[in-house]
Design a protein that fits this description.
Mean pLDDT: 80
Strand content: under 5%
Helix content: over 70%
Radius of gyration: 21 Å
Shape: rod-shaped
Structural class: mainly alpha
Number of strands: 0
Order of helices and strands: HH
Largest sheet: none
Distance between the termini: 32 Å
Length: 93
Amino acid sequence: MTPIATIDDLRAELERVSQRVARALNLAIRGIACAQASVLDMEEPHPGAESVKASLYAEMDRIHAAAWEAERMQSLARRILDAEDTSHRQVAS
């Protein structure tokens, strides 16, 4: 990681981190969706299928909550950067 020196550097780093988080969450969601489809497609009911389905749905709920929290944190970080940028502009003028 390179040193962060300016607000623009912070914005760029925030964007990179945001993209990595989004990719990771999308992969997790796709993985859980595939697992759910596998359980739902079972021709013969498996004794533990209902428990597995419940666990998968709970995991999907946790992933969605993490995605929402990541979006909230990104929004907060952007607002902080915008406020800091405005503050620097006011001091410079």
